[in-house]
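[Q] Does anyone have a clean structure-token version of this?
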Amino acid sequence: MRPRDTQLTLDQIQFAREHSLVRIVDDEAPLRDALRFVLEMEGWRVADYPSAEAFLRGDSPSNPGCVVLDVRMPGMTGIQAQAVMNERDIRLPVIFLTGHGDVDMAVLALQDGAVDFIQKPIDNERLLASIAFAAFESASKAAGLPGRDAVERVATLTPRERQIAELIAAGRLNREIAERFGSAVRTVEVHRANVLRKLGVKAPEEIKALLALADA
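[A] Here you go.
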């Protein structure tokens, strides 16, 4: 079982890292520590919980991101926690981990909205891809810029405006952009103003986020 499409651009993955939190919910402390280490090395912000009860009690679901949730834990199981999340309208994407292969359980979890169902020992590459996909989806919705809206805004840019938008998003100054294209700074200023107006944003970070959403 895996997401329908986990192929994201580097900008999209970076957007997800900057705007989301990955929750690890597992009763095995060594596994939590290992996953936290791997994720933080990749640049993700991480919170971990030793039980489903601790997660549901202590987490802030308004913070976008995803939940890496163990299926079998003492007390409330991962499947039960997913049901509670659905009852409470907690829309965080869920990635299940299990050491007990169960196809029927996986199908049920995916039907209830899980992003992926991964067996232990964990394939880190697959887990990271699933986390990036889930976190990007969550962060995109939280940003208030649905993908279709982003596509339509970006489509209004001319080819040169799109190039300039990408350079602005990368933090380039007007002078640097002008030198790159061999044009006057004033010309770049006009293009920049058009980019901001057409995209309906004010800051380079917003341009970066919008371009990432449009390319999803």
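[Q] Thanks! Anything notable?
[A] The longest helix spans residues 124-142.
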